[in-house]
Specification:
Blueprint lengths: L3 E5 L3 H4 L15 E6 L7 H14 L3 E5 L2 H7 L2 E4 L26 H13 L4 E6 L1 H12 L4 E5 L15 H22 L2 E6 L6 H10 L3 E3 L7 H14 L5 E6 L5 H12 L3 E5 L11 H19 L5 E6 L2 E6 H6 L1 E5 H11 L1
Parallel strand pairs: 2-3, 2-5, 5-6, 6-11, 7-9, 7-10, 8-9
Antiparallel strand pairs: 1-13, 3-4, 11-12
The structure holds adenosine-5'-diphosphate (ADP).
């Protein structure tokens, strides 16, 4: 049996088994609002484009809600047409812009958002964002506003789907940066410590670490012993003839600056820290992100047309599918211990 590290994404409000208001499955959708929320991710524009063009094709009206939930309750809403999404496919970021809204986390904020959606006669919302945004969507759904979510976050940490829009581009961006750092670390016989995004999820760190042959990978899901997992490991690498080293840490597993300082202090190996930060969020989306975003956007409109509501578009076992919003938020996602073990074996 493969040991797994499990991160549960179930919040307190799911435990009480809430249900959607009676009749919210009987809505006939004619006017759709679309918004992007939370951290931006490459491919969000491609998803918006797919939603807009697909909805227009079926005679539905689409409204862009600017600046996420903040823009919803402020009424920052404009009709979109086929040309509104021209030349967006290949661009990073989100032209609808995104924001974080503390107001929206309160029942009053959600009610205000629904009231504004009614002003614009919006029958349903397509919400593109990460785990937090999907929780916001749940609050809308539980107060009677039908929603469909598309998972968009570079962290790949939405439990009900194997893939989130932006993850592939972010991984490639980080990989290219680390390859460059490897060149200079090699020339100076140094240790390069790179901090990648992931406060609670280690998907980027682990998989970029594997892609770059990192000697050490630290992720938040697995607590580490610094002496054993970093210092001893680097010394083992040195004893095997390695002259330069890559340490990848997810931001939630430790600070690159602190780790580099401690490595130099304890081993005498010259160490430098690099924090990739928001660099990982930007850039033209990869082919995979454009393709996944396009397919997921079309799926979101299909869901609304078929009369199903309150769903999360998901990618499971190689297929784009969808799951119930409340069920999806109860799911858990695992990082394979085998992947961690394998990354250690092949980096030596
Ligand atoms: P992401 O969607 O990338 O995970 P955030 O966690 O920042 O980004 O969430 C984006 C927005 O979604 C927040 O600013 C807030 O308006 C809303 N949100 C986040 N968490 C919750 C929650 N638990 N309940 C309701 N709304 C939430």
């Amino acid at each position: 049996m493969n040991p797994q590290i499990t991160s549960t994404q179930t919040g307190a409000s799911e435990a009480a088994s809430p249900t959607y208001p009676v009749g919210s499955d009987k809505v006939q959708v004619r006017n759709i609002g679309v918004l992007t929320s939370g951290g931006d991710a490459p491919g969000m524009n491609a998803a918006i484009r797919a939603v807009v063009r697909s909805a227009l094709n079926y005679g539905l009206n689409v409204y862009g809600i600017y600046r996420g939930y903040h823009g919803l309750w402020r009424g920052d809403i404009q009709p979109l047409n086929g040309r509104s999404v021209s030349e967006r496919l290949q661009r990073g970021g989100t032209f609808l812009m995104t924001a974080r809204s503390e107001t929206f986390k309160t029942p009053e904020g959600v009610a205000k958002g629904i009231a504004m959606a009614k002003v614009f006669n919006l029958d349903a919302l397509v919400i593109i964002g990460g785990d937090g945004s999907i929780r916001g969507a749940r609050d809308l759904a539980l107060m009677g506003m039908p929603v469909v979510c598309i998972p968009g976050t570079i962290d790949n940490d939405v439990a009900c789907t194997d893939y989130t829009i932006g993850y592939d581009t972010a991984m490639n961006t980080a990989m290219e940066a680390i390859d460059k750092l490897r060149d200079t670390a090699s020339s100076h016989e140094r240790c390069s410590v790179i901090e990648v995004m992931g406060r609670e999820a280690g998907y980027i760190a682990l998989n970029v670490g594997i892609s770059c042959g990192a000697e050490v990978v630290l992720i938040p899901e697995q607590p580490h012993d610094f002496n054993r997992d970093v210092i001893k490991r680097l010394l083992e690498c040195r004893n095997r003839g390695k002259t330069h080293y890559i340490v990848v840490t997810a931001e939630g597993a430790g600070s690159a600056v602190d780790i580099a300082y401690r490595i130099e202090e304890k081993t005498g190996i010259s160490a430098r820290a690099t924090i990739l930060g928001h660099l990982q969020r930007g850039g033209s989306p990869s082919a995979r992100d454009r393709q996944m975003a396009s397919i997921m956007g079309v799926r979101a409109v299909e869901i609304l047309r078929s009369g199903q509501l309150n769903r999360i578009v998901a990618y499971k076992n190689g297929d784009v599918t969808d799951v119930d919003l409340l069920e999806g938020l109860k799911m858990t996602k695992t990082i394979s211990m085998d992947a961690i073990r394998d990354s250690l074996i092949i980096a030596l």
